[in-house]
Description:
Blueprint: H1 2-46, H2 51-71, H3 75-85, H4 91-97, H5 107-114, H6 122-125, H7 135-139, H8 142-164, H9 176-210
Helix pairs in contact: 1-9, 2-8
Amino acid sequence: MYEQELNDASASINQAVATAKSMRSSRESLAAQLKGLQDEKHALLSLPLNKADIKAFIFQVIDQRAGEFLSNPSGLWADSLSKTLYPKRDSYHEKNLGLRQGAPICLYDVDQAAGHKGSLPAEVFGAEKLGFIRPHALATAEQPFMFFFGDVLKAKIEAHFDELFPQGYSDQVLTVAQRRTRLSEIETQIAGLLAKISEIDEVLARLATSAQPLRRVPGEAIQR
């Protein structure tokens, strides 16, 4: 009875060792597939874009900056325009005409400006120039510049892209949409492989614990 049990246990262990060997081989195959997918993912992410997608990205940035200005006009340009729309009239106007400083522009202000050729009455507008049309008011921030001139920039880039960037870009590569589709497939496949590898590792860990070498108990140590 004892010998039969010992033989059965030994056979079970040998079977476990064979199973572990087979599973390690499967794990190596899965790991190779995983590396191939990871390499492909890296290539899809790192290879240069085609010309159409590059321009689309640039145009997207321009439109985004323009949209930021429209939703929240601020900065030097907006401040300069505000000074024209809400004149910083001096104390004379409030005392004698009832036109307080910072009240919305009115016909009186327009008529005062019309009488100053090439400039504005500083006592009404706080400055002699329309600050919002001066170049530096637009050049100090991306948002207003893109809002007013973004379409011009996009048209110029579209027309002269090959002249501006003659090297390093090609249309003979996968589009962004194609890459994203493939990347989604790769992520699904990677997740599946990682799950299988994890299952194999768990089984191998259990086998390593259970498949310990058997040791015969010396006869003299057996109590009779």
